[in-house]
Amino acid sequence: MNVKVAMQDLMSVPLFNGLKIEEIGEALSRANALVKHFRKSDYIYLAGDCIENLCVVVDGTVQIIKEDILGDKSIIANLGSGSVFAESYLGSRGDRSVVSYFAASDSEVLMLPFGKVMEMSSDSKVNSRLMLNIVSILADNNTKLIEKTEILCKKTLRGKIMAYLEQEASNKGSRSFEIPFNRTDLANYLDADRSALTRELARMRDDGLIAFEKNKFELLN
Prior knowledge:
Layout: H1 3-10, H2 21-30, E1 34-38, E2 43-45, E3 53-59, E4 62-67, E5 73-79, E6 84-85, E7 100-103, E8 107-113, H3 114-119, H4 125-152, H5 157-172, E9 176-178, H6 183-189, H7 194-206, E10 210-213, E11 216-219
Antiparallel strand pairs: 1-8, 2-7, 3-6, 3-8, 4-5, 4-7, 9-11, 10-11
Helix pairs in contact: 1-2, 4-5
């Protein structure tokens, strides 16, 4: 897969909001952008790596994860098509990542070298729009981290589960929705034991709070 093939899809990516196809092509060409394929379970970047690219998920799912010395994994964020990641390192020189970026499925990732992005002429209409979009993305991703913090601040597992499901319902605009996690990944996202999570979900269903089948959920109260 190359950048030209993905061009039409890129128009819906927040990073390129307000840009025409030819303007996106100009930006990608000037930044020497490329698209890389990652198989499921591949690491895009490991914690400790020096990150030199602004990345866009063109297809697939990428997870931002933190692993401890024992190999236990905590999922910080789940990123689908159109999501931008590693934007926090834009403009940095030699900063090393404190998290890992992991392909949760076969994925295509567009990579734009930071140095080339920052070297673009500041009086360029395309570059000005790109910088505005990056600022907007930084704000949106910061909001998502605040939402994650709100979940983890809950004192009980039930509280964490309900906070997460209420956020998903709000984002989807419906009390019936699908979540992007299987049980193991949901446990890792909530920093919970998988068996404890499964038991608590069953109790919440028995108490009439939720209904669910696999990753399909409905809030009943």
